[in-house]
Design a protein that fits this description.
single chain, alpha/beta, Nucleotidyltransferase, domain 5, 2 domains, 11 helices, 36% helix, 30% strand, globular
Length: 301
C-alpha cells in the first residue's frame, strides 16, 4: 500500500511519496512514442509528452492534463511501486469547486477512470500497474495550516494561496476554516506574467516566457517599473476581493502561500505581509498530514 500526495497546480505539479517530484504542469498529446521527448506517458491508448505544450487555463482540475500529470507523478514518487499495489491519493481542488459535493465526486470518479481505479500506464515504455483505491480531495489553501500550525494557534489568519491560474483565500480561526470567508478568483500568476510580457513588448522588446524568471527575480533597469507595477496591480486586486468578502484586512494577519507568492515574495513583503518560507510546497506537504490520518481511519474501519 502506498499513499500519494499530489498538488497538480496550473504552473507546477508537486508530488510527495517516498520522494518529492516537481515538474511543469504541461502536456502535449502526440501520435506515438517518440524518444525526442524527455518523458512520454502512454495511458489508455494515448501518448503524452510531459512538460511540453501550454498550461491549462480552465477553472476545474477535472481536465486531462491534471489526470495525466497526477498519475505520472505517482509512478515517480515511490522507490518501489509494485504491480497491482493499492494507492491512496490525496489531492487538492480550488475552493469554489471543492464546496460542490457533486463536482467533488465526479472529480474522484474522473481520476479513477473507467476501470474502477485500476491504472495501467507506461513511462518511456516502462509499464506500471496500480490500483487507485481511494481519493481524498482537499480544498487548496488548507495545507499551509498543517505545515505552520504554530502560526494559526489561537489566532485569526487569512490565508492567500496564490497559484498559477487562481488565488484561493480563506480565514482560519485557531486553524479551523471559516467557510463563509472562502473564495476563488482568477488572479493567478500566469495572467500576471503575461501582462508583464505584453507591457515590456509594447516598449519594443521581444520577451518570451522563459525570460520572465530573471526579470522577476533580478529585474534590469528597464524592467523594474513594469514588473513592480503589474505585481502591485494584482496584489491590490486580491486585497480588494478580500474586502468584498468582508475580510477586515487591517485587523487580521494575512499569510501568503502558493507558487506565485513564492515567485513574487519580494513585492508582497513590501506591503508588510508575510510569505510562507515553504510557499511552493505547503499544500502538498499539508495534504500529507491530513492524508495519513484519513488512510489510518479508513484502514481501521
Amino acid at each position: 500500500m502506498k499513499i500519494a500526495f499530489n498538488d497538480s497546480g496550473k504552473f507546477q505539479n508537486k508530488g510527495i511519496g517516498d520522494k518529492e517530484v516537481i515538474f511543469r504542469t504541461m502536456v502535449t498529446e502526440i501520435p506515438k512514442y517518440n524518444s525526442y521527448y524527455d518523458t512520454v506517458v502512454e495511458l489508455e491508448g494515448k501518448f503524452y509528452a510531459i512538460g511540453e505544450g501550454s498550461i491549462d487555463t480552465s477553472v476545474s482540475k477535472m481536465a486531462e492534463i491534471h489526470r495525466v500529470c497526477t498519475l505520472y507523478a505517482i509512478t515517480q514518487m515511490f522507490n518501489n511501486l509494485e504491480y497491482g499495489e493499492d494507492v491512496y491519493l490525496v489531492m487538492g481542488s480550488p475552493i469554489q469547486t471543492f464546496e460542490n459535493a457533486d463536482h467533488k465526486q465526479q472529480f474522484i470518479d474522473f481520476m479513477k477512470g473507467d476501470f474502477d481505479g485500476v491504472i495501467e500506464i507506461k513511462v518511456n515504455n516502462e509499464p506500471f500497474v496500480f490500483n487507485l483505491k481511494d481519493v481524498l480531495v482537499l480544498p487548496e489553501s488548507c495545507g499551509v495550516v498543517q505545515v505552520h500550525k504554530e502560526k494559526f494557534k489561537d489566532s485569526l489568519v487569512g490565508v492567500i494561496d496564490w497559484g498559477g491560474l487562481q488565488v484561493n483565500c480563506m480565514i482560519y480561526d485557531n486553524g479551523k476554516p471559516i467557510k463563509s470567508t472562502g473564495f476563488t478568483r482568477q488572479l493567478g500568476g500566469y495572467a500576471l506574467e503575461q501582462e508583464i510580457v505584453n507591457k515590456l513588448n509594447s516598449k519594443g522588446y521581444n520577451y518570451q516566457e522563459y525570460e520572465l524568471k530573471y526579470a522577476i527575480d533580478n529585474p534590469k533597469e528597464h524592467e523594474k517599473d513594469v514588473v513592480e507595477f503589474v505585481a502591485q496591480k494584482y496584489l491590490n486586486a486580491i486585497l480588494q476581493e478580500c474586502q468584498k468578502m468582508k475580510w477586515n484586512i487591517n485587523n487580521i494577519e494575512l499569510f501568503f502561500t502558493g507558487g506565485t507568492s513564492d515567485r513574487f515574495s519580494r513585492y508582497i513583503v513590501e506591503y508588510n505581509y508575510e510569505v510562507s518560507p515553504t510557499a511552493m510546497t505547503d499544500n502538498v506537504t499539508g495534504f500529507g498530514v491530513l492524508g495519513k490520518a484519513w488512510v489510518k481511519k479508513l484502514l481501521s474501519q
